[in-house]
Design brief:
The chain has 877 residues and is α+β, with helices and mostly antiparallel strands. Helices cover 17% and strands 32% of the residues. The strands form 13 sheets. It has a six-stranded antiparallel beta sheet, covered by helices on one side. Strands 29-28-27-26-25-32 form a six-stranded parallel beta sheet, with helices on one face. It is globular and about 90 Å long.
Length: 877
């Protein structure tokens, strides 16, 4: 390696040339030590072992249980790098992510011990580095990872031996175990949708940073809006001065060169550039710069801008440059101008309190989902692993998931506390797509030690991540943990003498947020409502009463939460995902491998029994995919339409969950192969800005319109009761005027005309605007799908070239076709982009056009005709 500029901060990437091996104790199984093997950095040990042919893919069949030995032993990673020239006196070795308990040596000398996956670790190494020609310039860097299983067990044993009686608790695998004592992603220990693959490794890049003078660190900005449309933005930038540059004159220039959005509707230069002198000192110093933006354009959540258009929000580019006097460091980023407030106002009757988000002065009904890590092995994610040269977005899982959330109408994602603090790439995508982020701190479903070193570690972790994430306009809320207050309150296990962990959530974390990000609200837990974490009158609520309690999704209407931040129904992943993990002999609903990939802890028969309340028993794997997925879609539709009808009391829904980390039965609406499930397509309808929904009350069906737009809407609602052959038994039309941002009952219609014929009739309704354009459409079945008296729909299918890049499928039905499913056989070609619509009801005489982008596997109409299969509730066509 050679240094390019002697005065400029320069980074060497140390991500190549690594090797690894085990450090297993005698008597371990397997009992043969491994030789040095090539390692990927960023990487994790399971992936390195898989690439070396030592283990099989942990996602396949039941291989997960045969690789548990990997987590019981230590692993050592080593690399050698060369320096020709003498490095700067102040040179830093930076690990962006070590997972997790590690000993680091440089040139055979102990350098440091690390103990947190969630923070970057930096060490001054200028005096330890070798330089020169040949072997004189070789440096050996070694990282030894201690078994998180073993270290966690040792720590909890010591705690329970030495802690006061009120802080002691019997070891419980899930809620008080070694994982509580290791600051790493908790889902790696296994969850009710994920495998137990604890793993370890260098999961984010390694860098050697030469800093002769100074470098840019973290920053923040605070915005004050003027009555004249201006925005006064104050930037506070942390600068790291080298020890030998305490008084060196350094200038900091902040520039805002342009503002725009994805459509370039606002791609204009902003002539703002301000230069200040950086304060003297060593280490971290703060420089402040104020910039005024005329005619400030606001950042808005997805589909909530005042025009109502589905455009991406406005972002302002910002550049930071350090000069002494020539450039020594440079950073570019983006900011968004907005206000986001958590509003908690007492009800007029004093019996409750609101819980809603107010953006730019407007209350926003939250429509979104919970986000889990996009892979069990984070280092495989292109951008998350620091592989910023990933230009093919088709291979970028995070990009595709955020785009899908935006396209489905989501305006918020909750980054769940059992995962990670996400990558910069994730937050940048949320900024660009108008997806607000509810950010949990990384504590979930357990008691956590909260005294002495554990409280100190919590503060260090929180400061690092708040400073990193706070600049993103998408950030809406910091939340202390996931379900820990509910766990203590409802006594999931016999509780300790106090809530172990409470000091973190009520003292340490809120203090960090108040100091480092005072403009973003903090909430102690999710769910949380004060004395009753599961209150329906205060705070947010997790409605798992339906899935874990009463069982049937028809009970969602019994919930009157102020904000429902978790709820959901499980379903199978898609056929393409099953193809990645099953052999031919496994392709049955009851095969051991298919059952192994059910982690819901519900009991497999109970889980399928909830589906069978509404749909037939699955005889084949295809049946399993179809029936579980359309049941999940019906469940989410039923619940979210209810929550939107009670808008004004309820101000948000975050269903569980949007994505998966491996092939599995889960609550996700997009599976591990990035294929949308039936529920994802339903999202596009029940998350629409204006929604027409049915609410059956015995013999009467109510029609409601939920309007999330910032302006009023009007038109007509037409509703008809029809037979499956298309005969109209009753119909009615209502005028509809709905104010901005409310839900309204429009009218009702009796089912009297269809009495006794419920298995052969349905309601169809349309809300059309004053210009007769269809705004929202809905269908209500009057009997369980498995009981419907359906006829062969005799589908008509025509396939044509829609344009140069897209194929079009025109599909029509002679009689009612329920839950029309389009898929390709063999399923592996589903790696091509998904259908524009799927799993929809088709009315008698109706024709729908579904498009699909062309791909290498499906590029012609002939390809699609050969591969396309269509299934309905009646059967396969």
């Amino acid at each position: 390696m050679t240094k390019l500029q002697l005065t400029q901060t320069f980074t060497h990437n140390l991500n190549n040339g690594w090797r690894f091996r085990d450090e297993r104790p005698a008597g371990s199984s397997p009992d043969t030590a491994l030789p040095w093997l090539p390692a990927a950095v960023p990487g994790q040990v399971h992936i390195d072992l898989l690439n070396a042919g030592v283990i099989s893919n942990p996602f396949e069949r039941m291989v997960e249980r045969s690789v548990q030995w990997v987590d019981d032993i230590d692993w050592v990673y080593e690399t050698t790098f060369h320096l020709d020239n003498e490095p700067a006196q102040h040179t830093i070795l930076a690990f962006e992510g070590l997972d997790t308990v590690a000993d680091i040596t440089l040139n055979e000398m102990d350098l440091a011990k690390t103990d947190n996956m969630f923070v970057a670790h930096e060490f001054p190494v200028g005096e330890r580095l070798r330089h020169g020609p040949g072997e004189d310039g070789d440096n050996t860097l070694r990282v030894t990872f201690r078994s998180a299983h073993r270290v966690g067990a040792e720590r909890i044993a010591l705690w329970n031996e030495t802690a006061p009686d009120k802080d002691r608790l019997d070891v419980n695998w899930y809620h008080w175990s070694g994982r509580s004592f290791i600051r790493k992603a908790q889902y790696a220990y296994g969850w009710d949708w994920g495998p137990e693959l604890v793993s370890c490794g260098i999961w984010r890049p390694v860098k050697l940073i030469e800093m002769p003078v100074a470098r840019l660190l973290d920053w923040r900005y605070d915005t004050e809006f003027g009555a004249d449309g201006t925005a006064h933005v104050t930037f506070s930038i942390a600068v790291d001065r080298a020890p030998n540059a305490a008084t060196t004159p350094i200038n900091l220039t902040v520039s805002l060169p342009r503002a725009g959005n994805e459509t370039d509707a606002l791609d204009v230069p902003i002539p703002n550039s301000v230069t200040v002198v950086v304060p003297e000192g060593t280490g971290r110093v703060i420089a402040s710069v104020q910039v005024t933006i005329e005619d400030a354009q606001l950042w808005w959540p997805n589909r909530h801008n005042p025009t109502g258009a589905a455009i991406h929000p406005t972002l302002y580019s910002v550049e930071f440059e350090l000069g002494a006097p020539e450039r020594i460091d440079f950073l570019t980023s983006k900011i968004g101008l907005r206000t986001i407030e958590l509003i908690r106002e007492p009800d007029a009757d004093g019996k409750g309190e609101s819980f809603k988000f107010r953006v730019n002065g407007h209350d926003i009904f939250v429509k979104g989902a919970n986000w889990i890590p996009a892979d069990s092995f984070q280092s495989r994610l292109e951008h998350d692993a620091g592989k910023l040269d990933c230009d093919d977005l088709a291979d970028d899982r995070v990009y595709n998931l955020i785009w899908a959330a935006c396209d489905a109408g989501c305006n918020m994602l909750r980054v769940w506390g059992g995962g990670i603090y996400e990558s910069e790439h994730f937050y940048e995508l949320c900024d660009e797509h108008g997806i607000m982020v509810w950010q949990d701190f990384a504590y979930a479903c357990a008691y956590y030690p909260d005294t002495d070193v554990y409280a100190d570690a919590c503060r260090t972790e929180a400061i690092a991540n708040v400073r990193r994430i706070r600049t993103h306009p998408c950030l809406a809320l910091w939340c202390g943990n996931n379900e820990n207050h509910m766990m203590y309150d409802t006594k999931w296990i016999p509780p300790p003498g106090r809530h172990i962990g409470e000091h973190l959530y009520h003292d340490v974390l809120p203090a960090v947020v108040a100091e480092e990000d005072p403009h973003t609200a903090y909430w102690p837990s999710s769910p949380y409502g004060g004395p009753d974490p599961q209150s329906q009158d205060y705070g947010d609520r997790h409605n798992w009463d339906v899935w874990h309690g009463v069982g049937d999704w028809t009970h969602y209407t019994e919930d009157t939460s102020r904000f429902c931040s978790e709820f959901g129904f499980a379903s199978s992943c898609g056929l393409a995902a099953w193809d990645t993990c099953l052999e031919d002999s496994d392709r049955s609903p009851n095969s051991p491998a298919v059952r192994w990939h059910d982690k819901t802890r519900k009991g497999y028969e109970t889980y399928l029994g909830l589906v069978n309340l509404h749909y037939p028993i699955a005889e084949t794997l295809e049946d399993l995919v179809y029936y579980t997925q359309i049941n999940q879609a019906a469940a989410l539709k039923y619940g979210i339409e209810h929550y939107r009808r009670i808008k004004g009391r309820c101000w948000g829904t975050l269903f569980w969950q949007i994505n998966d980390c491996w092939p599995v039965h889960s609550w996700a609406v997009i599976d591990s192969e990035l294929q949308p499930k039936a529920a994802y397509y339903a999202c596009r309808d029940f998350f629409a800005s204006a929604l027409l929904s049915f609410n059956r009350r015995e013999d009467v069906v109510e029609l409601h319109i939920s309007n999330d737009a910032l302006g009023p809407i009007e038109g007509k609602v037409s509703v008809a009761l029809k037979t499956f052959c298309g005969e109209i038994l009753a119909e009615q039309t209502f005028d509809a005027q709905v104010d901005a941002n409310v839900s309204k009952l429009i009218g009702s219609i009796s089912i009297e005309s269809g009495r006794g014929m419920e298995t052969g009739t349905y309601f169809t309704g349309t809300f059309a605007g004053v210009d007769d354009n269809e705004i929202s459409r809905n269908i209500l079945l009057l009997a369980e799908p498995k009981e419907l008296a359906l006829d062969q729909p005799n589908l008509g299918i025509e396939i044509d070239d829609h344009d140069a890049d897209t194929l079009a499928i025109s599909i029509s039905a002679s009689t009612f076709a329920g839950s029309v499913w389009l898929f390709l056989d063999p399923a592996e070609v589903l790696e091509s982009p998904e259908f524009s619509n799927n799993f929809f009801h088709l009315e008698p005489g109706e024709t729908r056009v579904v498009t699909m982008e062309k791909s290498l596997e499906v590029s012609t109409t002939e390809d699609l005709r050969e591969l396309l299969r269509v299934r309905t509730l009646y059967g396969e066509e």
